[in-house]
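S1.2 Input.
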Amino acid sequence: MRDDFDRFVTDRLDRLLRYATALTCDKHLAQDIVQEVLLRASRRWDRIGAMDAPYLYLKRMVTNDYLSWRRRRAAREVSTSHAALVAVGPTVDDPAVRHAERDAMRALIATLPRRQRAAIVLRYYEDSTDAEIAAVLGCAEGTVRSHISRALGKLRVDRNAPTEVLR
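S1.3 Output.
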């Protein structure tokens, strides 16, 4: 079973780290969370590896660890400065407009309540369905739709308002 776990980590580590980074908006906190989750999962891999979708189970473990009370202080200290956001997700030849929009969206997402942020990241960064999001967050599908609706309401910007784009 140890080989199965090692193969799983080799295949899925990048996806777990990408998901955790999008969720936390902090590359280092994401690495800590994923490391702790993988340590716990390795001890119970016999049971987890036998599941139909072990990746979804680990994604839920990452989400729960992020949402847990132990991480609240770290989650409040989300940096939205340009330098910090570039460190989380380095840019690669983005046009200026797309770069500015992505930074603005990350800054807006970082202001959302944690469960709404998790729902938005799962939906739009991970392409998860309502049922998958509900399974990861441990809530009903209606609650997922409510979280996403409220989050999108907070993220909407007035299209008539002037926007500043760096050129």
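S1.4 Remarks. The chain is about 70% helix and 0% strand.
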